[in-house]
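Hi support team,

I've been running sequence recovery on a batch of backbones for a student project. Most finish fine, but this one hangs at about 90% for roughly twenty minutes before it completes. I'm not sure whether the input is malformed or the queue is just slow. I've pasted the structure tokens below so you can try to reproduce it. Let me know if you need the job ID as well.

Thanks,
M.K.
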């Protein structure tokens, strides 16, 4: 169920002040016969789903934006906008919050990872519809684990392509906001840029173009799904070697040291390729010259944010976005917030600094948009793909709870339980959080009931610290789940052809998976509020400034397609945020 309780948040109320904005009226040239869309009537089964607001309308063609800019900051919690607010400048987050419509977005699915988050933003659907339910999955046909957006028929334009790489949106089911724009307006362009493959591919969709950063060459590149060779403007950008220009630079705190109340150099933080846990951080990857380890370190620093926005500017010019008489979409995925968050955690000085520096970079980019386009021509949507769990060892000290669970423990526990009940065997074929993949061939060869095998495996995992529950494939396929929001979140993240035989539910402040294999750093991937709650900031002529409460993240996509005058994405499950529209 969607929830839009208008809960007062004093911190936000103090920061967000309504600013005057021109009305977004219709003109007589509007070709759409139905220009008023009524809200659900008061009372009945839909009562309480929405806060108060005026009925919305479909904008006339002449009133639609020339450019929509969608910015997704990876791993940016909702509360960062309040916790770090005193350190923001006037041109970035503060501008969007004071002049735009503000929502506290909520992800109603369990698997809050980069791939699923970006896919949900782009499609307005949960993973059980769009198919992007994890960052990695076990492909039973291929007999191996693969990146969720790996496509054996599409290759990276540079370097060797492996199943660990994302190369196309083929596994993304349905359509995206950008796809629907291009279906309705073939001359429109959809360009997604960022450092991570999975983020830009999900936002670029099937009919756009996605560009991402190579950790092999340090260049911006793409895959053969989108093109056989990079366009000249990308080659020109790469020719300036912008990543290499950051080699040897020092990442130091932007603000005076007393503006960082968090503990520095925590023993629970990671050292990413020589960045270290304290200040300053020299960005070399421990190399004498630019190379892969440097490029990996670079992506976890604010220099990666600056490169992303610089490439976005190059895309604006190279593709003449918003300057050709049609509406275009530019999607910008910001990865350093995520990579720094994994390394240093959400309560670190590094996380504060990378966010404050994002605020400055965003502000500079918004001012550039002001110079390039006339008032009313640009619509901006800013959000995030997920939040972050505190480092579990930090949580254990502060809250006396939190566990980091190794895959080996899960595999050993399940194999021991199943071998003791059904006979010796290697029952676990793969572990890709939150899924446990069992050997179905072995189960069939012994003529066992899959439901019973799954149950025994799940119950065995309940003995492990940090695991609070489980759901089996049989239960999920038959709808045998408890009437809780947690169970609903698991169902929304379950895609039978790709998910596991047992889905584990982690306890609060605990996790397992890739980042639990280390003894430091943190991650995300649960239905707890630290992972699910993110900002939605909507700026532009159509929006009513102010804080409009809480909403489901699936509502962003239909709101954007309404303003574009095109169909919602095929699997879209959200509702238009009428309360934010003039």
């Amino acid at each position: 169920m969607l929830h839009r309780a208008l809960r007062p948040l004093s911190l936000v109320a103090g920061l967000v002040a309504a600013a005057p904005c021109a009305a977004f009226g219709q003109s007589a040239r509007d070709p759409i016969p139905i220009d008023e869309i009524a809200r659900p009537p008061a009372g009945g089964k839909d009562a309480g789903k929405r806060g108060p607001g005026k009925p919305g309308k479909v904008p006339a063609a002449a009133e639609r934006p020339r450019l929509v800019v969608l910015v997704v900051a990876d791993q940016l919690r909702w509360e960062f906008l309040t916790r770090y607010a005193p350190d923001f400048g006037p041109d970035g987050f503060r501008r969007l919050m004071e002049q735009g419509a503000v929502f506290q977005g909520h992800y109603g699915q369990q698997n809050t990872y980069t791939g699923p988050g970006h896919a949900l933003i782009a499609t307005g659907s949960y993973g059980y519809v769009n198919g992007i339910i994890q960052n990695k999955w076990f492909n039973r046909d291929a007999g191996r684990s693969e990146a969720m957006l790996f496509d054996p028929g599409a290759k990276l334009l540079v370097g060797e392509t492996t199943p660990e790489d994302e190369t196309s949106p083929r596994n993304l089911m349905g359509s995206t906001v950008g796809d629907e724009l291009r279906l309705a307006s073939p001359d429109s362009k959809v360009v997604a840029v960022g450092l991570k493959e999975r983020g830009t591919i999900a936002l670029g969709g099937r009919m756009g173009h996605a560009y991402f950063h190579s950790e092999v060459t340090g260049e911006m590149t793409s895959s053969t799904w989108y093109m056989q060779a990079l366009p000249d403007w990308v080659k020109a950008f790469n020719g300036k070697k912008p990543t290499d220009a950051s080699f040897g630079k020092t990442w130091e705190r932007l603000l005076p040291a007393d503006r960082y109340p968090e503990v520095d150099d925590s023993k629970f933080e990671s050292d990413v390729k020589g960045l270290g846990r304290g200040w300053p951080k020299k960005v070399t990857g421990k190399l004498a010259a630019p190379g892969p380890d440097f490029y990996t370190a670079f992506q976890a620093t604010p220099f990666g944010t600056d490169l992303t926005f610089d490439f976005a500017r190059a895309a604006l010019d190279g593709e003449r976005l918003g300057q050709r008489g049609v509406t275009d979409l530019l999607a910008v995925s910001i990865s350093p917030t995520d990579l720094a968050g994994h390394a240093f955690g959400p309560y670190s000085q590094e996380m504060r600094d990378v966010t404050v520096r994002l605020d400055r970079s965003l502000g500079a980019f918004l001012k550039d948009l002001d110079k390039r386009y006339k008032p009313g021509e640009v619509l901006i949507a800013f959000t995030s793909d997920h939040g972050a769990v505190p480092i579990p060892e930090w949580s254990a000290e502060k809250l006396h709870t939190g566990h980091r669970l190794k895959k080996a423990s899960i595999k050993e526990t399940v194999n021991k339980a199943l071998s003791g009940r059904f006979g010796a065997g290697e029952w676990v074929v793969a572990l890709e959080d939150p899924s446990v993949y069992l050997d179905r061939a072995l189960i069939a060869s012994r003529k066992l009931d899959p439901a019973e095998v799954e149950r025994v495996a799940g119950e065995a995992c309940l003995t492990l610290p940090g695991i609070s529950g489980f759901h089996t494939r049989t239960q999920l396929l038959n709808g045998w789940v408890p009437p809780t929001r947690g169970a609903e979140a698991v169902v929304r993240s379950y895609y039978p052809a790709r998910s596991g035989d047992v889905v584990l539910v982690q306890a609060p402040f605990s996790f397992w998976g890739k980042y639990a294999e280390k003894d430091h750093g943190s991650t995300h991937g649960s239905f707890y509020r630290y992972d699910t709650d993110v900002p939605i900031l909507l700026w532009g002529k159509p929006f009513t400034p102010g804080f409009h409460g809480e909403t489901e993240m699936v509502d962003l996509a239909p709101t954007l397609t309404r303003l574009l005058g095109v169909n919602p994405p095929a699997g879209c499950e959200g509702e238009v945020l009428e309360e934010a529209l003039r």
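--
Follow-up from support: It reproduced on our side and the slowdown came from queue contention, not your input. The CA atoms of residues 109 and 489 lie 4 Å apart. No action needed from you.
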